[in-house]
Amino acid sequence: MRPLTSEDPRTVGEYRTLVRLGAGGMGVVYLARSPGGGLAAVKVIRAEHAADLRFRARFRREAEAARRVSGPWVVPVTGADTEAREPWLATAFVPGPSLAEAVDAQGPLPAGTVRALGARLAEALAAVHDAGLVHRDVKPGNVLLALDGPRLIDFGIARHDGSTALTATGAVIGTPGYLAPEQASAGESGPAGDVFSLGCVLVYAATGRRPFGHGSPAGVLFRTVHEEPDLDGLSGELLGTVTACLAKDPADRPTAAQAVERLAPGGEAARWSVPGLSALIAERSSAALTLPDPEPLPTEPDLVPAGNPSRRRMLMAGAAGAVLLTGGGTAAWMAGRRKNAGGGRSPGSGARPTYVIGLHADMSGPGRAVGLAHQRGAQLAVAAHNARKGAAFRLALRTEDDTGTAEGALRVADRLAASPEVLAVVGPSTDSTPEAVVTRYGESSLATVVVAARSSAGAGSSKSLCVIRPLDSVLPAGLIHYVVNVRPAQRIHVIDDGADPASSWLITNSFRDAALTGATLTVHAVTADGGFGPAARSAVSARADAVVHAGGSPTRGARCARALADAGFTGTRLSTGPVLAPAFIRDAGESGEGWVFSEAWTDPVAAPAAKAFTAAHRARFGAPPGRWSAEAYDAVGLIARAAESTSATDAERGGVAQRLFLLDYQGISRRVSFHGSRQVRSDTGMFLYRIEDGRARWLGPYAKV
Q1: For a tag site, which of 133, 156, 423, 605 has the least CB within 10 Å?
Q2: How far apart are CA 313 and CA 9, in angstroms?
Q3: Has residue 338 been placed in a domain?
Q4: Domain that holds residue 429
Q5: Strand duo 665-666 + 671-672: pairing
Q6: Is the pLDDT of residue 628 over 60?
Q7: In this structure, are 447 and 544 located in the same domain?
Q8: Dihedral of the CA atoms 590, 596, 597, 598 (nearest 10)?
Q9: Is the pLDDT of residue 311 over 50?
Q10: How many structural domains is the chain composed of?
Q11: Pairing relationship of beta strands 15-23 and 27-33 according to DSSP bridges
Q12: Residue 46 belongs to a domain with what CATH number?
């Protein structure tokens, strides 16, 4: 996503543009909002191309083709104006990545998922062909991945089967590497050409490579026509179906409908499970949801009374603060490198240097329990590092108490940033971090690894803030996974809790934008001073099989739980991590039994990878580890790994900050790695919990439940 430029329209038809999704020689695709608040992808053709009557005819055909095709695996058209000076076409916005992006980032898909992909794409092509159309450009870039399956997009060169192409004689239509031999020879292509392209897409999904190799387009086209495909890595029914789809003679290929039957015999649906997809969709949805409101039109009256900010602006400034983290808390390349002047080694001594890690935590204020968990986890990590044979340096921990106040946080930041022996900082441990704190650490090139805090002000301007936990804005992905894959729900009822508009808006709109095929979503708003009884009774009367509490208050969540129990609701009940607190368990009582939560901290007592850590914690402190202790342990390990890979004998602050975002670190709580945007990957960092016998039972990483 890129900001709008001064030349971009603020409206396209009835849609209000938000950001650019992409741009090319033909036009621009915008993320836009409809009058009803829904998100849409709006493709606008540049006027100079629209002036070409042949091109306008092609675009008119695209809009007509897209409108004629319907089905669960085709992105629906929501609006169009093919006769405007700059014609445009709007479709539903799918926040998922393309198949090309997913395979490039995560590698080939599991065999079962490839079968599910093939069956659903074949079903989409059958719908295209039943409408009398041929797509002609089926490729990984035109397949978007949603939580429940793929979506086929871009009918830009689709045409009626048997119609005359609007291209010059001898032109090749399609994408080399994914088009049929008849297309590669610039011949006519019918529905069988789409089936051939489907086979190429499935090879790519299963192996990460094209069946006819890479290289110049001419070479790929030659191999497509004259050589056999490379199908190494395929087996079983998938191999047989793909081989049939890639037959050189169109008459020897199955139809799209026959491909559906071969990939999903008897309607048997293969499991749809794309590694990391839920987290990536949640992150992209969060980025879309946290965009500011469109600029008001000059002729539009102000619909928001003074002093009553919109829900979106409340989100931007609300207590959750997730947007501040998203905006730049994942930023990272250090502009300057400053020498660590206090390595703790005397010249010529031959002793290992000692690097100090600062712990910025609330040790005596309202967040002291989390601060203590940070300290104990970090202490165990330092001890484990120093016990390693062959370690090039030793670590020391320096704890600074900010007392849970803004003034205290500023004092701690000043002390740690001014101390040359401090290599990096773990923390702050609390949510209420002044912007000046993050700025102060950034100015001193001091890597700041945030473990637990839900928000960090100033992240947009920081060059060294590294957040290793998924933000609250991403947590709904775990709930969506649960109602799609663990306990599939057909009727989902969201209770939008107005007492926490920031959290409720994020959760509610994550479900709205998830495009859950086959499921009905209803939303019941509850005012900040209202009760949950009507919403609970509404869920029962709607015969909902899953209810989501969209809010951030444990006390309010408990009231919702009691209301649902009183109304007799017995289906799936869910909420996100901020609600999962002792107050919820205490106040909800038996009504809280069975509730499922998506959270960003792991339970080291239950997690197999943290078994040794838990034993060491009990031995040293006489108690099981607390929340966020394992994550603090991993934060120290991550910093140590960065220092090792920067320089084994003379690490620098700036070097450590740079290296953090390049690492792929397997910790005891999760695997820590980052996207190209320096944002932590969430697929291994979110966990599901269920309330059982009055306590939160760890179910495991959400994608593996």
Answers
A1: 605
A2: 22
A3: yes
A4: 329-471+647-662
A5: antiparallel
A6: yes
A7: no
A8: 170
A9: no
A10: 4
A11: antiparallel
A12: 3.30.200.20
Together in a domain, 266 and 355: no
Does residue 431 sit in the same domain as residue 495? no
Tokens of 99: 């198949």
Decide if 442 contacts 465 (C-beta within 8 A). yes
DSSP SS3 for 693: coil
CB 679 within 8 A of CB 643: no
- Do 147 and 83 share a domain, yes or no? no
Token pair, residue 471, equals 């933000």
Are residues 462 and 335 located together in one domain of the fold? yes
What are the pLDDT digits (tens) for 464-509? 889 999 888 889 999 999 999 899 999 999 999 999 888 898 899 8
Is pLDDT at 304 greater than 60 in this prediction?
Answer: no
688 in Cβ contact with 699 (< 8 Å): yes
**Same-domain pairing of 572 and 558:** yes
- pLDDT average, residue stretch 615-628: 95
Q: Among the options 52, 104, 130, 137, which is catalytic? A: 137
363: Cα separation from own chain's centroid: 33
Share of residues in the chain with pLDDT > 70 (%)? 83
Walk across the sheet containing 394-401 and list its strands.
394-401, 354-361, 422-426, 447-450, 465-467
Alpha carbon 11 to chain centroid, angstroms? 28
Copy the structure tokens of residue 464. Answer: 């060294």
Helices (H) and strands (E) counted in the chain, each on its own, are: 23, 24
The answer on 148 and 228 residing in a single domain is: yes
Q: By C-alpha distance, which of 201, 37, 624 is closest to 380? A: 624
Same-domain check for residues 209 and 119? yes
137 is catalytic: yes
